[in-house]
Amino acid sequence: MGNGAFDPEARYAQLDERVANQGARIGQLEQSMNLGFRQL
Fold it and tell me: DSSP 3-state assignment of 7?
């Protein structure tokens, strides 16, 4: 694991973080869309 070429745990941690961030961004997008529709 010392060479850093492929560390499965690190890769999964990165992926998990990206998925979590994406979920939060989708939630924000949903909120702003709902707000925009209410203003119409």
Answer: coil
pLDDT in tens, 1-40: 455 567 889 888 999 999 999 999 999 999 999 999 898 8
CB 7 within 8 A of CB 1: yes
CA 23 to centroid of chain Cα atoms: 5
Sign of CA dihedral 28, 32, 33, 38: positive
Sequence-separated (6 or more) residues with CB below 8 Å from residue 1: 7
